[in-house]
Amino acid sequence: MTLQRLSPLLAGLLVLSLGLMGLGVCVGSTGFENLLAPLWHPGDDPSATAMAQQIVGQIRLPRTLGAWAAGALLGLAGAVAQGLFRNPLADPYLLGSASGASLGVALALAALGGGAGMLGGNMMNGGAVVSVFSGSVLVRLGLTGAAFAGAVLAVLLTLALSRGVQHTLRLLLAGVVVGVVLGAATQLVLLASPDSLQAMQAFMLGSTAFVGWTACALMLGVLGLCVLCAGLLGRVLDGLSLGEATAHSLGLPLAPLRLALVAVLALATGTAVAQTGLIAFVGLAAPHLVRSVIKTTHGRLMGLSSLVGGVLLTGADILARGLLAPQELPVGVLTAVLGGGYLLWLMRRNSRSTAGGGL
Amino acid sequence: MKNVTHSIAIQADNIRARIGHTQILHGITLGLPQGRWTSIVGPNGAGKSTLLKVLAGLLPHSGEVTLLGRPLQHLPGRVRARQLAWLGQNEAAGDDLTVWDVAMLGRLPHQAWLAAPSEADRAAVEIALKSTGAWDWRQRALGQLSGGERQRVLLARALAVQAQVLLMDEPLANLDPPHQADWLGVVRCLLEAGVTVVSVLHEISMALHADEMLILRSGRVTHQGACTDAVTHRALAAVFDQRITIHPIAGQWVALPQMHREVNTS
Fold it and tell me: ipTM score here?
């Protein structure tokens, strides 16, 4: 029965992903009708054709694919976090990776000064992205590296404070503490370097505007690795869902397996955050959406959450570009509003069906 | 009565265990006979569940536990899990897993890491689900079941391990009387198959159906003996401060609460 429902769901999500990616290539400040003719008749106006090729091939295609990959990473990380912490409200940022990445970016912005400010200055204007992106590759790499390093260091700090991964609650509390402390440190850095505020705000709101092919390939590579690891570790989360003692009684070596799950969580979240900034609710909502349709094992849940996360972020990115075109909304704001609304709806529905219980 | 000597399935020597800073078990030594059903009873806070966890290798402790003649500490996790199945009290339940998936988790110790369930695994799960009457809901999510139904699924998960030793902590929680009787039937079948059963039960009348009784008080064993033995009945009454009496009713021993004791409410 589960398999009968799984196949159409899987097929539907794949088709939806491809459809949204196609749509993502069409939507933007330059309407697709203006791109279609130069692409269709390349000989008519070579400069217009080159521009159209650059817009589609170098901006929209990697951006759309990147949005899907980042959403898929966050969806997968959300399913891992909720299974690992046995808490439906757990999100991928719980181990402090988001605040670590923020601190990393804040420090990098403070160090890079005005050059990095370009990031924020153009966040609301998709049309000016090309020149900024091509002119500041080193800055982008520096920011991405700083975000990733910050995320990884924050997770390591959480692990050190919780003295390993033996106790889930201790891990959760350590993650909260690291999040709060690093958040405060970020604010301190920004106070000392007010020039970075605007660029930092862009990072905090999340954006896929600067995702190029390199970032895209990196995210897809990490996604492949994480999906593989998650598939191997799905049974561990199934066992853990019956309680730690029962999982232990089934012969599962919990400490190394939990460490592997934390590594998947940190790698997926760190990679996505480093490329797109902080994007809220995708990691939280994707597993809930899957569960509302199908009850299944964690192995399948993680795979499906990954696909749903990709669909959510690609869809949100298209809306962010299209709602106020040619102006662009930060995609993180849109996911926060839509995700928050979805969770409120979920709470209302659950409280009706379980008379006050549920989420 | 036949005087049969049973070999020991679980031997514990001078077991001490603490939870946080509180010492729960104070040097317990015992031997649980193979192929028999031993019920562990005692007042609230006596350390019954803690002892069961120690015997299952799930709690750090001092002293030594041997399982079927081998030190439990030195057994690889998967080997231990194949020989000893454990059903916990108020076991957290993966509400999103189907009944079939939950029961199949009992086969984890038998499966290679990435291997799909074998025919033997499927057969074991089917037998376990049918024996607890949970077969008809095998496609339903655990979260959609009542407390009693859920308990039967979790019991099926423990049975699916097909271990030689089965430890159960309050397995009758949420079960209505007919299903408690069904549980007794399952245990009898296991005993006929040579399985050693150890259960912590707070329903003393149900515990008296066992072959042996281990009585605990304040982390110490006060008595171990046959459930039909008058000495065991006296020890049982004593550990509950003479507030229960044991009577034979309709061919079985039944514990009744002593109703005439003055209760100081001041």
Answer: 0.89
